[in-house]
């Protein structure tokens, strides 16, 4: 008999060099002017790296980011999400391998769109600005 776990009522910790992230956005987006952009995951336009917030970092991971920082993860290099609920709240989390992390920031990225090659104009973001000294 199989059991379908929708929510784990406990805390979870990353092992090895792995990283567990939360706050990875996959749904609709709303622009400053109020336009609603539909979910593009699964389409050519939706193939781009995504930001996630570090929820847990494995004990063997010596990278400079910490729990609470934001990491940019290569497209498709995350597991399917599942919910956990604990004293901190309810989170949708995903596991990421450390070698799939492209950049990190100690602040939440603001209105960063990666995948400008599929837009109508050139990218106006300097990727080196995502790297902390």
As residue ranges, the low-confidence spans are 115-123
Number of strands: 9
User: How many domains make up the 3D coordinates?
Assistant: 1
Query: Strands of the largest sheet, in order across it?
Result: 1-7-8-2-5-6-9
Q: Provide the CATH top-level class.
A: Mainly Beta
Measured by DSSP, the beta-strand proportion falls in: 25-35%
Task: Summarize the amount of helix as a percent range.
Answer: under 10%
Quote the distance from N terminus to C terminus. 52 Å
What's the CATH architecture name? Answer: Roll
Number of H- or I-type helical stretches: 0
Order of helices and strands: EEEEEEEEE
What's the story with the biggest beta sheet? 7 strands, mixed
Q: Name the structural class.
A: mainly beta
Mean pLDDT: 76
Based on Cα principal axes, name the global outline: globular
CATH fold-level assignment: 10 Kd Chaperonin, Protein Cpn10, Chain O
Q: Determine Rg (CA atoms, Å).
A: 16 Å
What does this structure look like?
The N and C termini lie far apart (52 Å). The chain has one domain (7-122): 10 Kd Chaperonin, Protein Cpn10, Chain O (Roll), CATH 2.30.33. It has 133 residues and is mostly beta strands. It has strands at residues 7-8, 19-22, 29-30, 36-37, 50-57, 70-73, 82-86, 89-96, 101-105. The strands form two sheets. A seven-stranded mixed beta sheet has the order 1-7-8-2-5-6-9, with no helix packed on it. A two-stranded antiparallel sheet has the order 3-4. The chain has no helices and nine strands.
């Amino acid at each position: 008999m199989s059991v379908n776990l929708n929510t784990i009522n406990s805390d979870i910790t990353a092992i090895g060099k792995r990283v567990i992230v939360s706050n990875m956005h996959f749904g609709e987006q709303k622009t400053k002017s109020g336009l609603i952009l539909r979910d593009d995951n699964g389409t050519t336009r939706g193939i781009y790296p995504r930001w996630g917030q570090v929820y847990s970092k494995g004990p063997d991971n010596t990278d400079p980011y910490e729990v609470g920082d934001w990491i940019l993860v290569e497209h498709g290099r995350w597991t399917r999400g599942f919910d956990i609920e604990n004293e901190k709240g309810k989170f949708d989390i995903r596991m990421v391998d450390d070698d799939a992390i492209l950049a990190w920031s100690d602040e939440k990225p603001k209105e960063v769109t990666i995948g400008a090659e599929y837009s109508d104009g050139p990218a106006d973001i300097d990727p080196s600005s995502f790297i902390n000294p």
